[in-house]
Structures are given as C-alpha cells and as structure tokens.
Amino acid sequence: MKSKKQLIFLHLGIVGLLAVYVALVFFTKLDCPIKMFLGFACPFCGLTRAWVSAFQFNFTEAFNYHPLFPVAPVLIFMCFHKKLFKFINAKLYDFILVFMALLFFAVYVIRMIITSGKL
After folding, report:
1. What does the pLDDT average to over 15-33?
2. Which residue, 111, 119, 118, 102, is CA-closest to 42?
C-alpha cells in the first residue's frame, strides 16, 4: 500500500498533467484527440473546453460544450477511490457509477442525433 505522501504526490502529478493539457487546449485550440484521429466525437468531447470556460466563469458556454462537465470529476474520483466510499452499500455504489456512465452515453447519443440533423 502506498503511503499518504506518495498518494498526495500522485494526485498532484495527475492534476499537474491535466493543467498542462488544459493549457495546451486553451492556448493552441487543439481539438479532441479521438475526434482528430477517428473523425467522430467521443462521449467526453467538450469536457476540456467546458472546464476552460468554467474557469473563466463562463458557465453558459461551459454547459453548451458539455452539460455533464461537473459530473466528470466526481465519476473519476469515485472510480479511483472506492475505499473512501465503503460507507455506501456496494450495490448502490455500482448503481451510481453505472447511472453516471449511462448519463454520459445518453448525452452522447442525443448530441450525435442533433449534429447529424435528424432531430
């Protein structure tokens, strides 16, 4: 098991890498890497731009980029820190994760329908 100091440095490293990525997107206007290589959007497309807009206090634009941007960090945190949620029933914990994942998938499907012009 890792010590608390190692976990803190691991989290700081992850936050640092995310900050560098967000800065690159902000200053270079990079598009989603999956969209660049595959030609279509992923369920998480717009999250980085949404967080950049949120950090600039432009929450309307942030929700336009991705309406679930506040949910993403919660989902990631819950996935990597299951031990912190041991007070929650295991079935409820799994239900919450699956429900949030299904929300992302539903938003993805709706966005694909809207951008294809069939709605």
Report:
1. 75
2. 111
- Cα–Cα distance, 13 to 5 (Å, whole number): 12
Residue whose pair of structure tokens reads 């914990």 in the numeric block:
93
The owner of tokens 């890792």 is 2
* Higher pLDDT pick, 21 / 13: 13
Read off the tokens for 112: 């694909």
Picking from 5-14, 21-30, 38-47, which range would have the lowest pLDDT averaged per residue? 21-30
Tokens 């929700």 belong to which residue?
Answer: 63
Question: Cβ atoms within 10 A of the Cβ of 97, count?
Answer: 15
Alpha-carbon distance of 76 to 59, in angstroms, equals 21
Residue with tokens 């902000």: 26
**Angle (nearest 5°) at CA 46 between 61 and 23:** 90
Residue with tokens 């800065």: 23
Q: CB of 49 within 8 A of CB of 65?
A: yes
